[in-house]
Write a structure and sequence with these properties.
- This protein is an alpha/beta fold.
- It contains 20 helices and 20 strands.
- Among the domains are: about 1-50 and about 540-595; about 290-375, no CATH class; about 380-510, 2-Layer Sandwich (Nucleotidyltransferase, domain 5), CATH 3.30.420.
- It has helices spanning about 1-45, 125-140, 155-165, 165-180, 195-210, 215-220, 290-305, 310-315, 335-340, 345-350, 365-380, 415-425, 445-460, 460-470, 475-480, 480-495, 500-505, 520-530, 545-585, 585-595; strands at about 50-60, 65-75, 85-95, 95-100, 110, 150-155, 190-195, 235-240, 245-250, 270, 275, 280-285, 320, 330-335, 360-365, 410-415, 440, 505-510, 510-515, 515.
- The protein is elongated and about 145 Å long.
- One of its GO terms (molecular function) is ribonucleoside triphosphate phosphatase activity.
């Protein structure tokens, strides 16, 4: 009887630790599976930081080229079209390439713009290499093949296309080859092309208003959709003066008495679900550098007309230039003056007079004569009886093109050449408090002071002028022609485009804003990103993996939970059985056996 009582007690001693261990393992697995489910849900629902997309845009102007690099969230999660998403990463100006003719080693040519490479396309790779290498170092290597590279050529190449289409196209093809050999994304020829004047004007308008956050502020205040004919007084007008062309763009309200804008002078732009239809026009051949060529070609022909015998017999041909400071001179070759299509009319007149290959313009520094000569340039078409403007007189510009009346309640931003010329002009004027060299508000400068400077930069002797303007060998090429540049800019604004005194008070000359550098490239880039598909970063946990791991964890929780229930049930049942045995006297027998 004693042996029978001890036998179940021995089984109890051997099974209990195993059950306790299994229950501990089950509880641990249950807790781990529960924690795993929580982690799975967090991992699946949490979005990873989006990748960054990059794009490279080359602004190939008539006098230089600049590279702009932009970046934005690859998944376009914040939407495109605001500076909070499409940001300027960095800018790289391309340096000129030196070419030495083997047959004339003393002649050194500086190739500054892509139009200068028409006969030297083999040097284009060296021209682009430094900035492309900088982009390669600044953009993460794993993003190179996803980063498109673009080049937009402006008025300089539009003129080259008119002058020699074959050579201009060869330049573009050579650039495409350079880009295709780079690690960046280059897939279609349209990534390198010549922009139309309308595109350049519109993209500059978009860029400026985005940098000023006009679109962001407008749509934060007012969510309703505006009609095409509704005037937006918040948008600024943009004036852009380049080397070969000048652009005018502004939003416009059609008054009852106004003439409708012809289709060639406007376009519809959809931004933020709103359609804008600004007036825009690009005046080809009216950029600062081309205007100087036309001005001097007219001086040359006028001199030839009045002194034909002198120019026929003299070896050294000197022409007085009232827009050049007294005490300096410029030697100009016939090829550089008449190669441009902009001087085609003057070239025909010149060829009837002489076959000389170069001329020397002698500075005579006379502000009154300079002003009148530039006015005559603007009036050339108006005074040509063979040319008839097809628009009403009030809307017909100096170039016999259409321009509506300037709005009276919007601000204007003047870019590029406007800024650089006014920056040089402001060198000798008193600056207002809080002045920043990146922006000049016209209203901050008294008109008398501007008038004084316009005379001073023309009629100061060059030796004094050199010191007065803080000239150095590096900036002398930009400042020596300040007399012409200043008068041309001033008359272009006030006489040609028609800015009144009140209009000028709403004008700002700008180079950069806190949000980026002005120009057309940002507007161009935003348009391009509409065609670049969004790139979504894979989640840390895919849907199939999430479902599989979640199912496995739930099964594990269910099994461990059932195991714990079962073991608890058996333990309770066994305890209940002991209680029943106690009532029958087994407890005492067990205690006796243990004694």
């Amino acid at each position: 009887m004693e042996q029978k009582i001890q036998q179940p007690q021995q089984k109890k001693i051997t099974k209990r630790p195993i059950i306790n261990f299994c229950q501990g393992v089950a509880v641990t697995l249950f807790l781990l599976a529960t924690a795993l489910i929580i982690c799975l849900i967090i991992a699946y629902c949490t979005s990873r930081k989006p990748l960054t997309s990059y794009a490279i845009v080359f602004d190939a102007g008539s006098s230089h080229t600049e590279m702009f690099v932009y970046h934005w969230p690859a998944d376009k999660s914040e939407g495109l079209g605001t500076t909070s998403t499409v940001n300027e990463y960095f800018v790289c100006p391309l340096s000129s390439v030196t070419y030495i003719d083997p047959e004339r080693p003393t002649e050194i040519t500086k190739l500054k713009a892509i139009s200068d490479f028409e006969q030297h396309v083999n040097l284009l790779a060296a021209y682009f290499r430094p900035c492309l290498e900088k982009a390669m170092s600044r953009i993460p290597s794993d993003r190179h093949k996803f980063s498109p590279v673009f080049l937009g050529a402006t008025a300089g190449m539009r003129l080259s296309l008119l002058h020699n289409a074959t050579r201009a196209k060869n330049v573009l093809e050579s650039i495409r080859e350079v880009f295709s050999n780079s690690p960046f994304q280059f897939v279609v020829n349209r990534q390198v092309r010549i922009l139309t004047g309308m595109e350049e004007a519109i993209d500059g308008w978009i860029t400026t208003n985005i940098l000023l956050e006009k679109f962001t502020k407008l749509h934060a205040k007012n969510k309703r959709k505006r009609s095409q004919n509704e005037f937006d007084s918040n948008m600024v007008g943009v004036l852009d003066l380049g080397g070969a062309s000048t652009q005018v763009t502004f939003t416009h309200l059609n008054d009852i008495d106004d003439e409708p804008i012809p289709p060639d002078f406007t376009t519809n732009i959809t931004l933020f679900d709103t359609v804008y239809s600004p007036y825009a026009h690009s005046y080809l051949c009216w950029g600062k550098n081309e205007a100087l060529k036309r001005y001097r070609a007219r001086l040359l022909n006028a001199a030839l007309n009045t002194g034909r015998n002198y120019f026929t017999t003299s070896k050294n041909l000197h022409i007085r230039d009232p827009c050049l400071a007294n005490g300096t001179n410029d030697t100009v070759t016939v090829n550089s003056l008449f190669r441009s299509p902009c001087t085609a009319n003057e070239k025909q007149r010149y060829l009837t007079y002489t076959n000389k290959t170069s001329f020397k313009f002698i500075g005579s520094g006379n502000a009154t004569q300079c002003r009148q000569a530039i006015l005559n340039l603007f009036d050339a078409k108006r005074n040509d009886l063979t040319v008839n403007c097809t628009y009403k007189q009030d809307y017909c510009t100096f170039d016999d093109t259409f321009q509506p009346k300037l709005p009276e309640d919007i601000k204007f931003i003047a870019l590029s050449g406007y800024y650089y010329v006014f920056n040089n002009l402001a060198h000798g004027m008193k600056k207002p408090d809080g002045f920043t060299a990146e922006r000049y508000h016209y209203r901050d400068f008294p008109q008398e002071e501007i008038d004084r400077r316009l005379i001073n930069v023309c009629e100061t002797d060059y030796s004094t002028f050199y010191t007065q303007e803080s000239m150095t060998p590096s900036n002398e090429p930009h400042k020596r022609s300040l007399c012409f540049d200043a008068w041309y800019m001033w008359l272009l604004l006030t006489y040609a485009i028609g800015f009144t005194e009140s209009d000028l008070k709403r004008l700002t000359f700008a180079n950069t804003f806190p949000t980026g550098k002005v120009g057309w490239t940002l507007g161009y880039m935003i348009n391009q990103t509409n065609y670049i598909p969004a790139e979504f970063r894979e989640k840390a946990l895919t849907k199939n993996s999430f479902i599989g791991l979640l199912s496995g964890s739930l099964v594990l929780i269910l099994i461990t939970f059932l195991f714990l229930l079962l073991t608890c049930y058996l333990c309770l049942k066994k305890r209940s059985a002991r209680t029943t045995k106690n009532k029958d006297g087994y407890t005492e027998a067990t205690e006796q056996a243990n004694v």
